[in-house]
Amino acid sequence: MNRSQRIYKSIVLTVIIALFAVHISYGQKVVRYHLYVKDTMVNFTGKEKRAIAVNGQIPMPTLTFTEGDTAEIYVHNEMKENTSLHWHGVFLPNQEDGVPYLTQMPIEPGETYIYRFPIIQHGTHWYHSHSGLQEQLGMYGSMILNKRANDPTFRKGIDDLPTVPVVLSEWTDYNPNNVERMLHNASDWFAIKKGATQSYSEAIKAGHFKTKVKNEWKRMLAMDVSDVYYDRFLMNGKNQSTLSQLKTGEKVRLRISNGGASTNFWLTYAGGKITVVANDGNDVEPVEVDRLLIAVSETYDLVVSIPAENTAYEFLATPEDRTKSASLYVGSGTKQLISPLPRLKYFEGMKMMNGMMKMNGDLDDMGMNMSLNQMDMNVVMYPEITGEANKKDKGASGDQDEHANHSMPSMEDQYNSNKLSDIVTLNYAMLQSPENTTLPEGPVRELRFELTGNMNRYVWSLDNKVVSEADKILIRKGENVRIIMYNNSMMRHPMHLHGHDFRVLNGKGKNAPLKNIIDIMPMETDTLEFNANVYGDWFFHCHILYHMMSGMGRVIGYENQPKNPLIKNPRSAQRKLFSDDRHFHFMAENDFATNGNDGMLMFQNTRWSLGTEWRLGYNDMHGYETETHIGRYIGKMQWLMPFIGFDWRYRKMGIDEQEENLFGQSNTKDNRTQFSLGVAYTLPMLLILETEVFHDGNVRVQLMREDIPVTKRARMALMINSDKEYMVGLRYILAKNIGLRAHYDSDMGFGVGMNLNY
Amino acid sequence: MLLSFQSFSAQVDNSKTSTVKIYGNCGMCESAIEKAGNVKKVATVEWNKDSKIATLTYDSVKTNQDEILRRIALAGYDSEHFFAPDEAYAKLPACCHYERAKAATHKDEAMANSTINKPEAGMHDHSAMTSQDKNQLKAVYEGYFSLKDALIKSDGSAASAKAKDLLAAINAVKMETLKPEEHTVWMKVKEDVTTDAEHITETKEVSHQRDHFTTLSKNMYQLIKVSKNDAPVYYQHCPMYNDGKGADWLSKESAIKNPYYGSQMLSCGKTVETIN
Predict the structure, then answer these.
(1) Which CATH class is domain B2-108?
(2) Is Nucleotidyltransferase given among the entry's keywords (chain A) (predicted)?
(3) Which structural domains are found in chain A, ordered by start?
(4) Smallest Cα distance from A329 to chain B, Å
(5) ipTM of the modeled complex
(6) A455: closest CA of chain B, how far (Å)
(7) Which of A432, A679, B70, B254 could form a disulfide bond with A508, CB atoms 3.0-4.6 angstroms apart?
(8) In this predicted model, what pLDDT tens digit does every residue of A147-204 receive, in sequence order?
């Protein structure tokens, strides 16, 4: 796979300095690294794309320390943009934590910045940029903190095994800023690329028409387990690689970090069971499993063995959406493959979602107390657990209802992966710390969070507030903070706390495991607790990069804490921090058709929307009109949007001579300039009902739906209003930004054309 | 000749050719191997079933030998560089079950892991069951239970494989050593259970397998009632199957796990009789 690995190092000198810039001065036990951050071009897919390499490599170099060392890391920013580095899961003074505008000011272009902190723990950790979307471009790397040789917790047979750091990640040829923009614009291009459109024709073919209708009735878009389509999945920067230095019968400890920006990975191994020995840098009692899911930004230490001679066993990392995978072959010789995970049964997933979604957008757990990933609703989509999809099952849904009458199957059994099959899947309830992790005595503070959001507008929040809308949460040093989280959104979220490890209350009593990430699935409730023992402003957020950037997080600070000397102007720093989720996303579309131009332009952020639509004919008969709306989305699901508008229209009476609307009001259709007040509401079936009052007293009611997924690539649009105007259209998506469109408009007649969108 | 060569090479740019041994048996293997390896305009595979040698022609900029061989291995065919996953090999049609090069111990282990209830040690070893005092129908029952477990998982190919084991166990029964009452029932049901088991083997369609499982279960019930069992066996009933006509099955566990609906209706049903 050389071709995908060529990273162009433009300045040879940099590389020479960079390759091994580690100086260890034994007297002080200071371990020093130099990191040169530089723009680079990479070629993972056959196309040259921009990425960021550190010391000429992706992932960033593995940093190794031993407990008791002092880390001294020089970051040389050789890019044209700001950067920062966050030491994920590492206990350190707040000002070394690496969150720009919160714990430090960003590292400017050309600047050399020094992070210096004592290493006071051991375990598998990692580091990444906390600036913008740089993590997606290659800024992730392993950080291994070894135990001291005389550590009382040293485990023979585990801590003395050969270890290999592995960092998982993903690559997209799209610019991450564009990925973020497309997510906010509810583009379904990623679903098309994944083959996960779940259109009406696909639903009918799979015998799931009713499921699809119910899904849209409940105002949901096609469901998926992840948001972004990626071109490549990588382990240590490679799609396929081999650990050939290992011999038969040997065991190896893989220190795995998930450095993916938005991908959870399934981990499976062709050479037998996987033994989990540590999680998020903390030892756990060894537990044998067949597979596990590593959520975004988690770390796991896994022990695997090489059972037979002259064979290399495939260690497979499969993204949750199962579109592709990455392989690491452990051992040397012929490569023993493991079965790839079969494709998801999306319509089963849709049916499951329908069942748990209430009409108001809340989730209904039907009395199941879900937590710790033990019950996984997604098993309905996994063929290896619940069997292959049965095509056109003879009225399966009908059967189900009748059955419910006489003997309700136990809910828990239906979703408990380990009870349904002989495949052992790790869940958080199986993790146990070898140590007593009870917190010191102290007052308890309870914090409750509801994880909220909606996929349609890609807004993710806590208690329906994004970072910039919420106050800093203040805790007191010495107290024990208990966090109770309930996930009322449709996606899973790996929630990460900076600077502290928390205990996950998972039924293991005193030996509750310590973690700094918890992946919380829809409808789950998890309880965490930690001792507030280090001053500072600490970020607590969802680690899916695009969720974090849209504001899913909080700042947790301490009462009466000393000021951070690195933040000279806290007010302007805070404004910068908040700008991430206040950011407006731009979207534009125009249809160049035989009967005129149809298009729109939109700027949107978490709450606000500014949009202009136009219909421009080629002559006065067809007319010209524009409508501009400035509105604010209300509520958690954002179905309601009051707006103020401005309309302008000019035309000579055309094809459809309507001067009176349905309410008997006449309108100055030919030449009109109007202000309006209105409200848009998303009805079941995702129909948008828009009611508008113009300043001359005219009222207009309009019903509209765009993007009805007819087939994988065909989208239908419908519009009708009380001015007796109507439109029907059909668009066929050719590529990300281009489509063919045919439509009939009551003003402008029939037209075909080319649709361009951004 | 020259013309044809040109037209061939025009299909794959930056063409590179290599030969490699791929294990397989028959014409069916040939088409499966070539289908798995070929990618339009990128890679062409031609496999010779006599020499077992494949000629790979591929665009060396877009792909490489390992990528092609990996795809072929995932379809069930071993090569010098890749061993197929055991499940992929097991799914090949019977005629394609070529002799594998890799160590057998590993394969057996994988097979044992893939069954739900760990089978009794003697289950596959029919000679061990000829002794008079050991209930020699036990292998038949175990075969039946494994089949039932495969149906619970709605796994058609596993069910087909388990039915094959069951069939082997049925054929291994020495009628003359059966106890008189067992003998009578065995005479009565043997033909039917054989037919049902055969049908289940022949298809991978779970719904069809379940149809046969209804009559198979009825006959097994008659048999197990007159047999001496080490542990209680539960006769269980699902009232909904077959448009409400209902169906029965036998299980070693009292908890309901419905083989007629699997995960759809896992715990639908009730125990109607406990056979000791």
Answers:
(1) alpha beta
(2) no
(3) 2-147 (2.60.40.420), 444-561 (2.60.40.420), 585-757 (2.40.160)
(4) 11
(5) 0.81
(6) 28
(7) A432
(8) 998 899 999 999 999 999 999 999 999 999 999 999 988 888 898 888 888 899 999 9
